[in-house]
Design brief:
Blueprint: E1 3-7, H1 12-21, E2 26-31, E3 42-44, H2 50-60, E4 64-67, H3 74-79, H4 81-98, E5 105-111, H5 133-148, E6 152-157, E7 160-161, H6 172-181, E8 186-189, E9 193-194, E10 197-198, H7 199-212, E11 216-220, H8 228-239, E12 245-248, E13 262-263, H9 268-274, H10 281-292
Parallel strand pairs: 1-2, 1-4, 2-3, 4-5, 5-6, 6-11, 7-10, 8-12, 9-13
């Protein structure tokens, strides 16, 4: 049984992997605050307490270290470049150094935001062209990882469809569901496009990549391309509400950070590597609603 250490085990992806695979792997986790009942394998630690992180890595000698720590609020990153670089780049460098003697596979998450959105679709070999601070910090981290790691997985994600636990920050799908259920007016962009991915697909792909001992860069993104408005209408059809969603253009929706309009990632490399089939978005939405109830 492989030993896996998850940094940020209370994050959407970290917690989903912990829940689904704790019986298959020997999973340890680090987080700032553990909200559930005590678990001998879960340790509370400040994210930049690298002496503690390193001692944990040295003590358990994990086969795999999964880094789910990062600042993913695109507007906050734009307003605070130093904080963005601290979490999304400096943390990565320190983690690589801390794990340098452990002989562990290191797993990192990146984002479609490393691209400008000028292409119809992006593959793993396309060069970064970020238009915001968040994407730039992720692109810098990618470059450092590829130059300083030999056994790594770099997983690029689009927007993740995921349930929200009470101890997690809100996400797009949960925001839409809550708005529809409470009849809160919703405005969603209609001229953007991405291939959303379900969190269960992300962790399932991780499991298969671990089993195959894969190395390198992989996009994890679904098969269906929708705008945020399109996603909202799909969720509304499942919630079975007559509450309307207002469609707005990206020019009407003001944000601190510039957002690329079209961010579609090719998933061909991942499918070929692990023979993977992505869930249908409609099925993923129905699963989310069941979790809500």
């Amino acid at each position: 049984m492989k030993t896996i250490l998850i940094l940020g085990v209370t994050s959407n992806i970290g917690f989903a992997f912990y829940q689904q695979y704790r019986d298959k792997y020997n999973i340890y986790g680090l987080c700032r605050n553990w909200p559930l009942k005590a678990d001998a394998h879960i340790k509370e630690v400040a994210y930049f307490d690298f002496e503690n992180i390193k001692s944990t890595i040295d003590d358990i000698s994990p086969d795999i270290v999964v880094n789910c720590v990062g600042l993913n609020d695109v507007d906050k990153c734009e307003s605070n470049m130093s904080m963005s670089n601290e979490f999304n780049f400096d943390f990565v460098k320190l983690l690589i150094n801390a794990a340098s003697q452990s002989d562990s596979k290191l797993v990192f998450f990146s984002s479609s935001q490393i691209y400008s959105g000028d292409k119809t679709e992006y593959s793993e070999t396309d060069k970064p062209s970020a238009v915001n601070v968040y994407g730039q910090s992720k692109a810098h981290a990618e470059h450092y990882i590829s130059d300083n790691c030999s056994d790594f997985l770099l997983l690029r994600l689009t927007t993740v469809i995921s349930p929200r636990q009470s101890f997690q920050r809100n996400n797009l799908s949960n925001f839409i569901i809550d708005g529809l259920i409470s009849n809160t007016p919703l405005k969603l962009i209609c001229d953007d496009l991405t291939n959303f991915v379900c969190v269960n697909d992300v962790v399932s792909a991780m499991n298969l990549l671990f089993y195959k001992n894969s190395i390198g860069v992989f996009n994890i993104a679904g098969d269906e391309k929708l705008s945020r408005y399109g996603l909202g209408k799909l969720i509304a059809s499942k919630v079975k509400t007559s509450w309307d969603i207002e469609k707005v253009s990206s020019t009407e929706f003001k944000t601190v950070a510039r957002r690329p309009i079209r961010l579609v990632l090719s998933n061909n490399k991942l499918k070929k590597e692990i023979d993977f089939t992505f869930s249908k978005l409609a099925d993923s939405i129905e699963s989310l609603l069941k979790d809500k109830n």
